[in-house]
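Encode chain A's predicted structure.
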Amino acid sequence: MKSMEEMIQAAQKAAETIQKQMNEAQGRLDQIEVEGVAGGGLVKIRCSAKGRVIGVAIDDSLLAPAEKGILEDLVAAAFNDARARADAVSADEMGKMQQGLGLPPGFNLPFS
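Encoded structure for chain A:
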């Protein structure tokens, strides 16, 4: 049977390993790009799986002053689409990492 000190050291080492893996996963998420679209592709937003907006593309046909309200709505819709895709990729990546840790069901990361 291990001493209490050995168990504490093992727990600390496991926590450090989990923290390192979490940091690596977060770094990977910022490298994964997703694209949200709206208006049949007239507005596109690229963002990282962490939700950082990388770029916005607006079709030239939408640049008429009378279309300003539509354009604003489409940009918001494209961002929301990109964010939803980013959340899905993020959840998938974090799920893969958690499976590799052998955590019990229902034990969710990240924790602070």
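The two ends are 30 Å apart (CA to CA).
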